[in-house]
Amino acid sequence: MSTASLSYDVFVNDPPPQDGFLPNGEPKRFSPMASTLIYGNEDAVLTDPGLTEDQARALGDWVATRDRNLTDIFVTHGHGDHWLAAGLLAERFGARVVASAGTIAQMQSGVATRPMLWDQLYQGIPPSPVTAVTVPGNRFTLEGHDLVIVEVGHSDSDDTTVLHVPDLGLVVAGDVIYNGVHMYLGASAAAGGFGAWRDAIGKVEALQPRHIVTGHQNRKLDDDAGRTIAQTRQYLDDADELLATETTALGFFNAKVERYPDYLGRYVLWVTARALYGVREHPGGNPAQIAAASWL
Ligand SMILES: [Zn+2]
Predict the structure, then answer these.
(1) Ligand 1: distance of its center to the CA of 2 in Å?
(2) Helices 266-281 and 249-259, interaxial angle, to 10°?
(3) 33-83 pLDDT, tens digit each
(4) How far does the centroid of ligand 1 lie from the alpha carbon of residue 281, in Å?
(5) pTM for the predicted model, two decimal places
(6) Which of 94, 103, 226, 289 is deepest in the core (most CB within 10 A)?
(7) Distance, CA 181 to ligand 1 centroid (Å)?
(8) What letters, b where the CB count within 10 A reaches 16 and e where it falls short, cover 42-73?
(9) Which element (helix H / strand E) includes 188?
(10) Residue 144 CA, ligand 1 centroid: distance in Å
């Protein structure tokens, strides 16, 4: 009765093609999206399977090369870029889709708004019925090893979670932690600032991971937990500082680009800037609606 050890590997999908340009003249470009395959001798679990049919095909072909039985697909939070393609992968591999109850509720509302948001931005997003189920006590297993869904509250959206794999010292962090990529801060205005997000980072740190795989990352970077946590905190601190000194969305965008010249996903930075300054400039407005409109 030996207990085999687990391993994990990461696939980083390219962002889908997109029309339009940023204020500095660059083409709009979403962030690269990372999926983690956690695997034993025979079985495997996949996280955050992406948005479009093309991404699902590339990710699925990569999963197939690992030659494992894919039992579960775990979704960290309700944003469509993390799961709208889940159905294609679930069907291809006969896998179950798993999420927390809070995430499943966010997925339901995401399906309702996708025609006004994701379908306006990208071609080839598959049908996306919400088939995710909860698991008892937010725990499931892979060849006898615990996979623990940890609810961390608000980060880049409400009701976000991470997946803790104690036997690997691994946290799959969704969009709670970022790695070399601009962070989406647009929902923070409605949340009254970054306090809840900082609490969420603290909950990840308390798990004492050695490795953190972030939902968006530069594929050239490693997954060192201490570095990614520190850089995520620093990015929020810088945002607070720039919100106090920059008077326009464009000023915020330019200042962030200057401080983070190597960070990917400047489209997300521009959306963030429009959302944060849009809320500031329309004090009577609905922050969630202003944030949503900032994507278009
Ligand atoms: Zn995301």
Answers:
(1) 38
(2) 140
(3) 999 999 999 999 999 999 999 999 999 999 999 999 999 999 999 999 999
(4) 26
(5) 0.96
(6) 103
(7) 11
(8) ebbbbbbbbbbbbbbbbbbebbeeeebebbbb
(9) none
(10) 30
